[in-house]
Inverse folding.
């Protein structure tokens, strides 16, 4: 599966700072010091209704992670999956009378277009669950050999008790885990499971549903968590720098994935930091496909909204915060974009070096994009009030906003 084209990232003078970011697993900030190549895995979409503002906010956060790393002169090895076979996708296809593969291709194509328009840097490897199945099957077989998996009526489950570190990503109690498991794709009430929290690794073929040859597992399809584990281990290996996604993935998805990988490899932890973006609401409720309260990037684009304004709207909220999308949020972003573009179109302005370092500093400090916007706002205000004599300053500002915030002025 191919990703989307990369926009050019301007090189800035000097060098950025190492990223200090909040780690869900420790509940505290950690300073990441990758080697020459930083490794990032971000969980991708289930392509049945893409791309709403909740998606955009999540991928915006991890685009900033990449840009901070690139500014330190590192390369970034970024991997993202597409869960292109799963119950919600199959249910939507049946509801709408569509072929599930056609629906997945259609929504993945739209997602690529949205990411391109928003100038999100693409992953080096963009891998669908279906194409990952040949690598998933041996991992499930290995977990069964290790005694960490068991069969139940043809399905294969992972035993959470096989990982002594289970629970160390989300730090939830058993009752909270059971509730979230039921809400987020698990089946804690299924009779016969060793532990209600045990997640499915391999689902035996169901009549009328797609299935693949699973070798000793029989025909079926993979569970959600093992999909990401197989892709991450194949392309990044254990101990990669950041595992990312929305805050609703901390449990069960990232918790279970970490346990799968740690049992498979005997190493800990799977990732050096687990980083989670907040949720975006509309009309007082979390924006989600199940609720149908979605604001789509593609619809905004069709209505003539500049994608740069959408990105500025996202940057106006700290990535870890939960916030609400409103018409005013968008109006503020459009006004800011117009003001910035007017400023950099002038022939000169006040010196911009302090602004560059201010943006670098706040982004390296847990991706504080709202403060980065404020730093640019201050330079624009100085230019509007007193002008300046530095003919290079508007270009420096424009390149900084492009390189570090992904916004083309």
């Amino acid at each position: 599966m191919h990703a989307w084209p990369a926009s050019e990232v301007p090189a800035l003078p000097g060098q950025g700072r190492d990223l200090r970011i909040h780690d869900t697993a420790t509940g505290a900030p950690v300073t990441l010091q990758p080697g020459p190549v930083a490794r990032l895995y971000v969980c991708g979409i289930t392509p049945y209704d893409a791309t709403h503002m909740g998606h955009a906010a999540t991928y915006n956060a991890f685009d900033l992670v990449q840009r901070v790393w690139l500014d330190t002169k590192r390369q970034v090895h970024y991997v993202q999956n597409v869960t292109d076979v799963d119950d919600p996708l199959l249910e939507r296809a049946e509801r709408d009378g569509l072929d599930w593969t056609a629906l997945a291709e259609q929504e993945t194509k739209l997602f690529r277009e949205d990411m391109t328009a928003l100038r999100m840097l693409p992953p080096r490897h963009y891998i669908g669950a279906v194409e990952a199945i040949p690598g998933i099957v041996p991992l499930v077989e290995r977990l069964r050999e290790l005694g960490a998996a068991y069969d139940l009526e043809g399905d294969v489950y992972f035993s959470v008790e096989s990982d002594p570190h289970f629970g160390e990503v989300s730090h939830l109690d058993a009752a909270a885990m059971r509730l979230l498991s039921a809400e987020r794709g698990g089946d804690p009430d299924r009779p016969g499971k060793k532990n209600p929290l045990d997640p499915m690794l391999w689902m035996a073929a169901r009549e009328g549903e797609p299935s693949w040859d699973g070798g000793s597992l029989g025909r079926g399809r993979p569970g959600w968590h093992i999909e990401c584990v197989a892709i991450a281990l194949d392309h990044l290996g254990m101990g990669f720098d950041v595992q990312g996604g929305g805050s609703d993935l901390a449990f069960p998805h990232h918790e279970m994935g970490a346990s799968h990988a740690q049992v498979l490899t005997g190493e800990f932890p799977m990732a050096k930091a687990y980083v989670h973006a907040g949720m975006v609401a509309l009309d007082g409720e979390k924006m989600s496909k199940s609720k149908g309260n979605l604001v789509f990037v593609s619809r905004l684009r069709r209505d003539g909204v500049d994608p740069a304004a959408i990105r500025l709207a996202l940057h106006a909220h700290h990535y870890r915060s939960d916030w609400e999308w409103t018409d005013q949020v968008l109006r503020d972003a459009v006004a800011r974009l117009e003001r910035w573009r007017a400023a950099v179109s002038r022939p000169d302005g006040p010196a911009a070096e302090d602004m560059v370092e201010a943006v670098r500093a706040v982004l390296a400090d847990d991706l504080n994009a709202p403060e980065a916007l404020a730093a640019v706002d201050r330079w624009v205000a100085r230019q509007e009030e007193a002008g300046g004599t530095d003919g290079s300053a508007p270009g420096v500002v424009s390149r900084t906003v492009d390189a570090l915030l992904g916004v083309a002025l």
Observations:
- The chain has two domains: 20-297, 307-405.
- Residues 53-71 form the longest helix (19 residues).
- The mean pLDDT is 96.
